[in-house]
Specification:
Layout lengths: L11 H5 L7 E5 L3 H7 L5 E4 L3 H4 L11 H14 L4 E5 L9 H15 L3 E3 L6 H10 L4 E6 L5 H4 L9 H17 L3 E5 L3 H10 L4 E4 L7 E4 L1 H4 L16 H17 L16 H13 L2
Parallel strand pairs: 1-2, 1-8, 2-3, 3-4, 4-5, 5-6, 6-7, 7-8
């Protein structure tokens, strides 16, 4: 048996079993090279609909399509081999009814090979989650700040700041867990509310702008690596990708303009025999 065939990708049971244990390490991924780098360190790679903003420059996630999620999901699956891969269901792909949700979730899983889908768990979501789980689709929930709903809430605003909001977010989390979600992302809520949700549900919670006491943490990778000049309050920068890219591009531009690139090491040289061989090939082609 080859070393390659011995690698086991994490399963939904592995993720669910993390409740109360060592925190799950989760990051977003949108392409194969990045997935390859992150795969050895992450328990979960989320192909988030944040790809619309992070990669495609959209103002929100609302414009993301199924085709975009499938394309990026396929790339991440090719680049990873051990992490559990979850793909976001984009806005408009699951809200209408349970059958719509299943058909689109099944398409995502078939065409990407991912292990699960994620849906933003509004009040309507419990029925869709139960419908999907009963039909073999593992579902990750998402409560608190729900980016797909920014047009309703008026922007990317933290949730759960008053009693009514807190009760709603808690109810949505419990409903998602009771419906069969194997894990729940908690985004943009007060620390104590995230702690309450983590204690109240039997499945792992994954925080983003929530609490260190969640069962795992996730960040948008480009935010964490410092690709943008602004990042949300809850992001800790672990790199300066923007600065490093700028320095590299500046150095490249200078070398091109001074003709220092390409140099001897980056230039191909023809051997003595090659010109004659190429001439014979060209002659055969010209004779039809």
């Amino acid at each position: 048996m080859s070393a390659q065939s011995q690698i086991r990708r994490k399963t939904v049971r592995d993720i669910a079993a993390a409740k109360g244990g060592e925190p799950l390490v989760c990051l977003t991924a949108y392409d194969a090279p990045s997935a390859t780098v992150m795969d050895p360190f992450c328990d979960v790679l989320l192909v988030g609909d944040s790809v619309g903003m992070v990669v495609h420059g959209l103002p929100s996630t609302v414009g993301v399509t199924m085709e975009m999620m499938i394309l990026h999901g396929q790339a991440v699956m090719r680049g990873s081999e051990r992490a559990f891969v979850v793909v976001d269901m984009p806005f408009g792909s699951y809200e209408t009814n349970a059958d719509q949700a299943f058909l689109n979730a099944a398409r995502l899983m078939k065409e990407t090979g991912c292990q699960a889908v994620k849906i933003e768990s509004g009040a309507y979501a419990a029925g869709q989650i139960a419908h999907l789980v009963e039909r073999g689709v593992p579902v990750m929930g998402h409560v608190g700040l729900r980016p797909q709903a920014i047009n309703v809430v008026g922007g990317f605003k933290a949730q759960g700041r008053d009693n009514e909001e807190r009760e709603r977010v808690m109810a949505e989390a419990k409903a998602a867990a009771d419906a069969g979600a194997f894990a729940i992302v908690i985004e943009g809520v007060a620390e104590d509310l995230a702690d309450e949700i983590t204690k109240a549900v039997s499945v792992p919670t994954i925080g983003i702008g929530a609490s260190a006491n969640c069962d795992g943490q996730i960040l948008v990778t480009q935010d964490m690596l410092g690709l943008f000049d602004w990042t949300p309050k809850f992001v800790r920068r672990y790199g300066d990708m923007r600065g490093e890219m700028a320095k590299s591009v500046e150095a490249y531009a200078a070398d091109v303009r001074s003709r220092a690139f390409p140099a001897e090491a980056e230039t191909y040289k023809l051997t003595k025999a090659t010109p004659k061989r190429l001439s014979r090939v060209a002659g055969r082609k010209s004779r039809g």
